[in-house]
Amino acid sequence: MMKLDPKIPAGPLETKWDRHRFSEKLVSPNNKRRITVIVVGTGLAGASAASTLGQLGYQVECFCFQDSPRRAHSIAAQGGINAAKNYQDDGDSVARLFYDTIKGGDFRSREANVYRLAQVSAQIIDQCVALGVPFAREYGGQLANRSFGGVQVSRTFYCRGQTGQQLLLGAYSALCWQIERGQVTMHPRTEMLDLIVIDGQARGIVVRDLVTGRVSIQTAHAVVLATGGYSNVYYLSTNASGSNVTATYRAWKQGAAFANPCFMQIHPTAIPPGDEHQAKLTLMSESLRNDGRLWVPKIAADHRPPGDIPAEERDYFLERRYPRFGNLAPRDIASRAVKTVCDEGHGVGPGGQGVYLDFADVLEQQGQDVVHERYGNLFDMYNRITGEDAYHVPMRIYPAPHYTMGGLWVDYNLMSTIPGLFVVGEANFADHGANRLGASSLMQGLADGYFILPYTIGHYLATAKLSPVGEDHKESCAALQRVTGRISRLLNAKGRRTAASFHREVGKFLWDHCGMSRNKAGLELALRSIPALREEFWRNVVVPGSGEAFNQELEYAGRVADYLEFAELLCHDALHREESCGAHFREEHQTADGEPKRDDTCFAHVAAWEYREHAVPTLHKEPLAFEFVQPTTRSYQ
Amino acid sequence: MTFTLKIWRQKSPDEKGRFVTYEAHDVGPGMSFLEMLDGVNQGLIAKGEEPVAFEQDCREGICGSCSLVINGIPHGPDRGMATCQLYMRRFPDGAVITIEPWRARAFPIIKDLVVDRRALDRVMQAGGYVSVNTGGAVDGNVLLIEKDQAETAMDAASCIGCGACVAACKNASAMLFVAAKVSHLALLPQGKPERTRRVKTMLDAMDREGFGSCGNQYECEAVCPKRISVRFIATLNREYLRAGVVESGLPAEPESPHAESA
Predict the structure, then answer these.
(1) Same CATH fold assignment for domains A25-266+403-463 and A272-399
(2) Is the ipTM value over 0.90, yes or no?
(3) Contact yes or no for A55 and B124 at CB 8 A
(4) One digit per residue, pLDDT tens: chain B, 262 residues?
(5) Which CATH number fits the domain A272-399, given the four candidates 3.40.50.300, 3.40.50.2000, 1.25.40.10, 3.90.700.10?
(6) Using CB atoms within 10 A as the burial measure, which of A151, A200, A466, B246 is most buried?
(7) Are B38 and A242 within 8 A, CB to CB?
(8) Residue of B48, B125, B191 lying closest to A179 (CB–CB)
(9) Superfamily of domain B3-111, CATH level 4
(10) Which residues of A touch B53 (CB under 8 A)?
């Protein structure tokens, strides 16, 4: 029977983390050399964790499926990273960042975790500056800030529109140093395909060398997953095409609880989908909403060019519905508002899937040079993809799956329900509740990797009884067999449909029934339909080539197979949560004017799902106690 | 639109490669170049044939995975973009398009259009970092950095490590790649303590990995998806010269405070 113990330290919120760190046991320097830790994934969380663990003296085996650790998907984050520095003296503080994040998450995250995140946020900026991250500066030489959706202070640090890239390259450079020092062994182009659990402890992984196809076992004293989110289950998302659910999903099947999988962030400002060949949706940074105004024609199916529609016939729907935050309303609220106006027939562009993001006002008031300096690269990107010039016609945007607040359940120490399996960054569920605020994912990834995990994993390693295990242990061999069995099953199906066609189908199904708004009938339909699609996949998929060679289609088919199972878990969770909160909107639970209705009496809990073979997963609940803040109706009106 | 593609196929590093011709049908002008290739591959897979291996990931020009030489030019005909940002409206209907992998001694071919770029990582490991421990960093505003200086550092730091500069250079030199990192860190106060060592170890690693030397042809800059300027190569050369002077024991900067106190 699975037990969820969040292990939140007692006492005042402000001192929990300090006291906890002091009460943690340490590993002596001599012993660290003899301890091996596996880190899977080299995004912000993985690279910062691996480099810091290496610096502390552990032997780190680090894995990524990309050809270089520098290409992990954190690289694509554009906007910025939050920190409670209060450099602008505009009323920011640790408490305010904590409160904004808790409220932004619609009171579905743990107070203690979020407070700690806000506390270490300032250290992250200092660390990144020390690593040579070229943050934007003011003329006086100080660090510059910009504002971001969902908050009223200016606390976001940035490097043009490439903040994720620069933070990741900073963490990558720290990783390079530890590789050079021999503390970290890097295994690029190596994909984790299963988790090895021995005597109830995570003791290793099964990996496939993507160049030679060789499948092998890697054992260790602890395993850290930093494998990101699962937005690609929807087929079309803003994620890189390689981002996938496989590592966390396989860990789930070995006993790690999966928490709140239905909390799925749909980002409001992506370039709208085009034809069916489209492979991804391109995000336009949320920072555009600082100056761009969202509108649709008041008349449904109005096909006039935007310039011909006079101001009084335009509906600036975010400003109308949320006058206090206007175009800077949080992501979940903005996305749903876009969907609502499009569903009512006011959408623009092909298929009516789009709204205008208009810069005419700022262009007129401040001139093209200012707009170019702020958003030049984004306007260029938009132009390249759509062939349109946003300096003269408004951009068209539509929401797209972007980030997953759900993930493997972890306690305060970032350890999953499997002892020795730690989960950091987007892969865990911990800090963002039911909705993540902009510029908070970079903060969380680096907080976990640089400042939290390195402490908490030490206590585990110092206190757990870890007997030596080898590659010939029966659990290792069983895991290896699971992997090789699946690979040969994929190669031997020899059907007629490509893995991509199944992926597109399940993704479309999820988008329609478990996307921006959900209802009971749709979710039940999805749960009835997905098993049939999965059954067809295993019968009718075609994967050319062999397993003992570089085979990209085999890698992809394995990930699609996991999406086809994981999609069901997503729907189970969305079905169970009979409330609307954050990004999760159940049509049955809304007010007369379409605002979400949260239910704190029945659903102020984390839904953690336990895998059961050939059966509906078991739901466990971690109640969320709010000692320090009072959950309120989240109003941005 | 319809295109004729001449694509480099090579089963493995040791086998000989060759061009194979494919037709791409039903291509829309709004499709990206990689989506066009996806379409060709879906057709091959459905027939049970091995698809063309090529690298891609973020598809928005920032991860540096995509790496195709299109009609002889790394990342294709337009300046300042990666392969994934190229759209088919750029090509006339019916065009013949040649697609090859990066070609350089330091980038052995793995399969078809996929090459091994780990040499670039090893060059970074030789010194492309600031050796600071996690924790204990001073406040980010303690060291003020001039806005222009920070912007120039950012220009250099925006390198995505794709290796197009190497593929475009007839000497297969990685000078622009190394110059970008050396300049980025030399421009910032945080990178200064190690600048002497860094420039030497990174250039040594570059030579060791089999990259050539700079021929001053500027092809690297022309194909760089982030438009990184060859002026950074000049900075690299200055840093290298400076490192030589410092190592020979001569004072590199006459205004050195130690000299005053002596």
Answers:
(1) no
(2) yes
(3) no
(4) 999 999 999 999 999 999 999 999 999 999 999 999 999 999 999 999 999 999 999 999 999 999 999 999 999 999 999 999 999 999 999 999 999 999 999 999 999 999 999 999 999 999 999 999 999 899 999 999 999 999 999 999 999 999 999 999 999 999 999 999 999 999 999 999 999 999 999 999 999 999 999 999 999 999 999 999 999 999 999 999 999 998 887 665 655 555 544 4
(5) 3.90.700.10
(6) A151
(7) no
(8) B125
(9) Beta-grasp domain (3.10.20.30)
(10) 550, 552
Q: Which fold has domain A25-266+403-463?
A: FAD/NAD(P)-binding domain (3.50.50)
What's the DSSP call for residue A273?
Answer: P
* Chain A closest-CA separation from residue B182 CA (Å): 11
Q: How far is B193 from chain A (nearest CA, A)?
A: 12
Residue whose structure tokens are 């089999």: B210
Smallest CA–CA distance, residue B236 to chain A, in Å, is 17
Whole-angstrom distance, CA of residue B10 vs CA of residue B71? 18
Residue A328 in contact with residue A150, Cβ under 8 Å?
A: yes
B131 touches B38 (CB < 8 A): no
Tell me the pairing of strands B69-70 and B96-100. Answer: antiparallel
Backbone φ, ψ for residue B28 (5° rounding): -90, 150
User: Domain spans of chain A?
Assistant: 25-266+403-463, 272-399, 474-604
Rg (CA), chain A: 24
Distance of CA B144 to the CA centre of its chain: 30
Instruction: Please give the single-letter amino acid code of residue A560.
Output: V
Classify domain A474-604 by CATH number.
1.20.58.100
The CATH superfamily assigned to B118-132+141-261 is Alpha-helical ferredoxin (1.10.1060.10)
